[in-house]
Amino acid sequence: MLAGIVNYLLGLIYFLDRQSLFDELKIASRMDQAKLIMSNNFHLNISSYEIAESLCMSYSYFRKLFKEYTGYTPKRYLTGLKIEKSKELLTTTSLYLKEISLAVGIENVEHFCNLFKKNVKITPTAYRNKTQGKFK
C-alpha cells in the first residue's frame, strides 16, 4: 500500500512539473507574440494596454510578465525599438529629423530629440555626424 502511495505521489509531482513547464511555454509564447506585435507596430503608437488586450490579459498582469520575461517594461521596450530604428535611419539616410521622428511614431520633433539624447547620450544630429563620418 505504501508503495502505491509513493508511486501516486511521484506521478503527481511529475504531472505538476510537466504542467508548470507547459504553462511557462504558453507564457513565453505570449510574450514573444507581444514582442512581435511591438516590433511590427511601434511606429503606430500602439499602447501597452492594446497589446495586453490583444493577448487577452489584464494590463497589470501583462506588464508584470513582460518585465519578468524581457527585463524591460512594455513602454521601455517600445522606446528602445523606436530608438534603434531612429539610429538606423540616422545612419543610413539623409532624412530630416522631423521625418525620422514621424517614421518612428513620435509627432513632436523636440520630444524625439530629447528622448534620443536621454537614451543615446548624444543628440540625433551628433549621432548622424558620428556614424556617417561627418565631424565638425
Task: Give a verbal description of the structure.
With 136 residues, the protein is mostly helical. The chain folds into two domains: 2-71, no CATH class; 77-131, Homeodomain-like (Arc Repressor Mutant, subunit A, Orthogonal Bundle), CATH 1.10.10. The protein has seven helices and no strands. Helix 1 (2-41) crosses helix 3 and helix 4 (74-92) crosses helix 7. The longest helix has 40 residues, at 2-41. The chain is elongated and about 80 Å long. The N and C termini lie far apart (85 Å).
Task: Give a quick rundown of the structure.
With 136 residues, this protein is an all-alpha fold.
Which characteristics define this entry?
elongated, 136 residues, Arc Repressor Mutant, subunit A, 7 helices, single chain
Strand content: under 5%
Largest β sheet strand count, sense and barrel closure: none
Report the mean per-residue pLDDT as an integer. 89
Number of domains: 2
The helix-strand sequence is HHHHHHH
Distance between the termini: 85 Å
Helix-strand layout with pairing:
Layout: H1 2-41, H2 48-54, H3 59-70, H4 74-92, H5 97-103, H6 109-120, H7 124-131
Helix pairs in contact: 1-3, 2-3, 4-7
